[in-house]
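Researcher: Go.
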Amino acid sequence: MAIQSIRIKNVMAFGAKKIGDNELPFELTFCPGINVIIGENGTGKTTVLKMIYAATQIPNDNQREVTSHFLHNYFSPNMKVNDLITISTKNSNRNSTFEVSNGVQSFCGIFSGGSLLSYNTDSNWDIPSVFIPTTEMLSHSNGFLALNQKYQMPFDQTQIDIIVNASLPEAKEMPPYMQAILDKISAAIDGEVIQENDEFYVLKKDGRKLRFSLEAEGLRKLGLLWKLIRNGLLEPGSILIWDEPEANLNPELFSLVAEILLELQKNGIQIFVATHSYNFAKYLEIRRTEDEQVQFHNLYHSEQPGVIEASSAYRMEDLHNNHIMIADNKLLDEIYDL
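Model: Structure:
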């Protein structure tokens, strides 16, 4: 079942909006297809993605202790619970909360005075998800997981999990639509991704075996997606969360990534992406076959200090305070003036 909404109050960038004596949380309602989150730096795009991911991971991982492996570990290994809470609530009795819901069940975390009071979720809350962080991690895979078990590594949980997921065994069979996607990615990277002795390589079609770290960084992103699909992690009913898929990617490949995401969505995979690229976001809009396949969410600073607001629409032109479109229009104006 797809994620339907998220509510955040007094956590990190998301201070509560005050209307009279009431404190209103930040809230977003998502579509079951592709949700594109845009906005200026510091408006909490990555925070939203990581909260969704944490909510789908924590309840189903019995090996993690809630007290030591809660939400803050998805942001930084050095972060404490108190760092999650907005400054205005640290020395008050006001609660900080976040809730992720699929419309039937929900995951909710409650904080107060810098302490985690509780978290709860329904017993049948089970939403498989994969998070692709901005930082490319497979180049660091050699011995990484063994070291991480023994030492305090300077990586957050999303960066650790992506190496774990990429290191899983490959699925025996691929559905035809997934095989078609694998073939498109394979053509773009001119090969396939393999793992030998705890290290990843790109096995080129001419037989060359290239260390993953030596491949172009943009192509490494595609290679990672190839490996996740080949390992059977993206199935109907699962969620793909991808932070800045366009980073270090040649703009010529934007349309390919958009085409792949739309194909995954058509086959029952809900997708969340955060992007600063107008062109990448626009490819998703113009390549979709139905408006409801892709919804845009623009995060922006409110007139109230410390408060983030959002505007959602099925067309980028209908968003309020859309700064990536404003920046794009300014560039076009300068070109026109010249």
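Model: Residues 62-69 have pLDDT under 50 and may be disordered.
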